[in-house]
Amino acid sequence: MDLGLSAPFSGPVSVFHDRRLPETGVPAGYAALIEAYDLAVPVPRTLSAIGTKHRILEQGGWRIYTPRHAPEASLEGHLTFALKYEGLDLALLKRLFLAVKEGDIAELVRQKPTGLYTRRIWFLYEWLLGRELELPAADKVSYVDAVDTDIQFGGAGHNSARHRVRNNLPGTPEFCPLVFRTPALNDFITQDWKERARAVVSQVPKDLLARTAAFLLLKDSKSSYVIEGERPPQDRVQRWGRAIGEAGSAALDEQEFLRLQRIVIGDERFVKLGFRKDGGFVGEHDRDTQRPIPDHISSRHEDIASLMAGLIAFDHSVENDIDAVIAAAVLAFGFVYIHPFEDGNGRIHRYLMHHVLARRGFNPAGVHFPVSSAILDRIAEYRRVLESYSGRLLPCIQWEATPSGNVKVLNDTADFYRFFDATPHAEFLYACVRQTIESDLPNETRFLLSFDTFRAGVENMIDMPERTLNNLFGFLRQNQGKLSKRARESEFAALSEDEVSKIEQLYAESFDQGEP
User: Fold this and answer.
1) How far apart are CA 176 and CA 128, in angstroms?
2) Using one digit for the tens of pLDDT, what is the confidence trace for 402-451?
3) What is the pLDDT of residues 326-375, one digit of tens each?
4) 268 pLDDT band (50/70/90 cuts)?
């Protein structure tokens, strides 16, 4: 039975939406549905097609299946193929359900009322569109998961008796990005970095751990401003560091976001605080015309309240048992794509990583990983991750420039911020967390131990004020452990040649494993 989708292609293709196939094939699943219904959606990172050879090929954002995988050229055929092999793309599915006739979906369910895939389609239709089809409740058959957890990460879930579907979607219809299971993420989770962090911390004396944690907080705060290209005064850096130190202590709400923005901005004279009342974008302006050249276009300001309510609900969900680092990536990158504020979005975005990790007990007590510092070390990769979705989103947004050099979005884009593939973001954040546990935390602890050894040695030789000793250390560090001629002739002219030699030797012995 054909439910509104005849053969969408005249034959095999070699290019689809400017994306070249590794070999000629017939688009299937989501690719077929995008073409057949002319869906203006961000094209999935990986598309499927049916090839002519009897092996599966994965290359260049394509998965080429064998002829035996070919679905029936119908709405049911390609939807079933998508759910079976490609997982859930909620933004695409919602646009598809809005494009098809309501009766077509209802008839599909009537034809196969106990089918695993038809019940999932039925549930997703009603969940995404917020309205019920004229169908009786499903017979008492075994429940099926809405999210196939062999393909994507799901939440704890609860049963929908009407559909006999277990709703394990990790969010709500207002905000529910999804993450695919990948070898990299499976390895990160298996390695149990939460426990590894506790093992590292358990070997550090409490007084030293407190100093390490304080320095890492300051380092993270400073790095977060550097990422934005700012060099704020030290008091703002310290104030933001204190805010990071409190991350996770309270659940998010609108007032908490506004409080964070006030801390980040500091000087309110030239920035409108609160949620945007206009459009927003990230990018440049043409030098001559001042026309926007966006790399990313933020959500419409009319949609911010709904999107932020969904994001806050995601944070509050007690049933959301998704991995803590994955949840942090979903929340933080979801926020930065929405870009609800005129300014301060980037720093609050990275704060949210700390918030989720602390809220879910991933951090050892009293320690906040310097995630921003790790991001700064990987800044090119960070930008690629942000663009992994922004680049696919931009072609779907219709906009015009405003007289003030801003953008005005002309089409309905809210679903593109509610639902996106956060897999690259989760992999990236896990790599940053691993770096902080494997390198940053032990390196800083080792540095403080070495500095304590150096300071004690100098104090045994010479009565020197703390400020002078720190200055001495700074000169040595800048000059690979040697006191420069200028320093010896000015600030430290009182030191004898023998004392200088002993101090340099002490520095070398204290930092014999190198500095972080």
Assistant:
1) 11
2) 999 999 999 999 999 999 999 999 999 999 999 999 998 888 888 889 99
3) 999 999 999 999 999 998 899 999 999 999 999 988 988 888 888 999 99
4) low
Give tens-digit pLDDT for 178-212.
999 999 999 999 999 999 999 988 888 888 888 88
Q: What is the DSSP string of 228-243?
A: TT----HHHHHHHHHH
Query: CA 117 to CA 79: how far, in whole Å?
Result: 8
Alpha-carbon torsion angle 148, 150, 153, 155, nearest 10:
60
* Alpha-carbon span 295 to 284, nearest angstrom: 8
At 161 the pLDDT is 95
Type of residue found at 269: R
Supply φ then ψ for residue 431, to 5 degrees.
Answer: -65, -40
Residue that has been written with the tokens 């075994």 in this structure = 142
Please give the radius of gyration of the chain, using alpha carbons only, rounded to the nearest integer.
28
Residues 6+ apart with CB under 8 A from 462: 495, 499
Query: For 137, phi and psi rounded to 5 degrees?
Result: -60, 150
Task: Give the residue from 91, 80, 125, 131 showing the smallest Cα distance to 105.
Answer: 125
DSSP-assigned beta bridge partners for residue 172:
175
Neighbours of 69 (CB within 10 A): 18
Q: What is the DSSP letter of 44?
A: P
Q: Which long-range contacts (CB under 8 A, 24 or more apart) does 199-208 make?
A: 200/437, 200/441, 200/442, 201/364, 201/367, 201/441, 204/445, 208/445, 208/448, 208/449
Check residue 264 and give its pLDDT. 85
* pTM for this model (two decimals): 0.91
Beta pairing class for 281-285 and 292-297: antiparallel
| Helical spans, DSSP H, in 88-138 | 90-99, 102-111, 116-129
Nearest-angstrom CA–CA distance, 292 and 282: 9
Q: Considering only CA atoms, which of 128, 65, 63, 122 is closest in space to residue 92?
A: 128
